[in-house]
Every structure is written in structure tokens, then in C-alpha cells.
Amino acid sequence: MKNTLRVIAAVAALALATPAFAQGGGRGGGGMQMSPEQRMARQKEMLFAGITLSSDQAAKVDTIMVQGMKKQAEARQAAMSGGGGGPAMMEAMRKMNGEQMEALKAVLTDEQKKKFDENVAAMPQRRGGR
């Protein structure tokens, strides 16, 4: 009986702790707390989980990801300074993300592309805002 209660208590604690951790511990969202380098490392970790990149591939991936981050930052800055944003900016970001994903896949072998596609499909997608 005591073991059953301990298991239930442990499961309840995990169930309560997991959403708080996923949301950045209640500090306003985990993604916004990260530096650009941390965000890139996290994205790279999720996209290339289970994929071993050669040093040449890794260098190309880093270059593509840094360029993509710069383009997105420039687009956000332009939208903010021009008072724009909204649906047009979201569409531009989707287009940039799609182009980046295609550029990343171009670096990979056919076998690596399959795993990459699985990783992309498994990533949590932000839809409809927060």
C-alpha cells in the first residue's frame, strides 16, 4: 500500500513539474530566455538527433543555421521598425524556415534525410500563437 502511494505521489509530482519545466519554469517561456546561440544549439540538437554529421557537414549546417538566424532577425527588425508584422511577417518567416530546411537537407545523405524528416515531424509545432 505504501509503495502504491509513493508511486502515485511520484507520478503526480512529475505531472505537475513537467508543464512548468516546458514553460520555462514560470519565467515567461523557455524559448525567450535563451541566447541566439542556445536556440541554435537546441534546434540543431532536435533536427539532427540520431544523425552523425561529418565535420564538413557540421560546418555547412552551422553556416546555414547562422545565416538563417541573421535573415530572420533582420526581417523581425524591419517589421518592427516599419510597424509591420502580423500575417505578412509570419508568412515571410515560414518561407525562410522552409528554405533553411531545404538547404539543411541538401547537405545530408539520403539515409540522413529520412531521419531528419522524422525529427522535423516529431518537433513541437507552434500553431495559432500562445
Report on the architecture of this protein.
The chain is mainly alpha-helical and 130 residues long. The protein folds into 2 domains: 1-33; 35-122, no CATH class. The chain is 76% helix and 0% strand. It has 6 helices and no strands. It has helices at 2-22, 30-33, 36-47, 55-81, 86-107, 110-122. The longest helix is centred in the middle third of the chain and has 27 residues, at 55-81. The N and C termini lie far apart (41 Å).
Helix content: over 70%
- Overall 3D shape: elongated
| Number of helical stretches of at least 4 residues | 6
Q: N-to-C SSE series?
A: HHHHHH
Number of strands: 0
Secondary structure class reads mainly alpha
- Distance from N terminus to C terminus (CA atoms, Å) equals 41 Å
Feature tags:
130 residues, mainly alpha, 76% helix, elongated
Gist?
The chain contains six helices and no strands.
Map the helices and strands.
Blueprint: H1 2-22, H2 30-33, H3 36-47, H4 55-81, H5 86-107, H6 110-122
Signal peptide: 1-22
Protein name: Periplasmic heavy metal sensor
Keywords: Signal
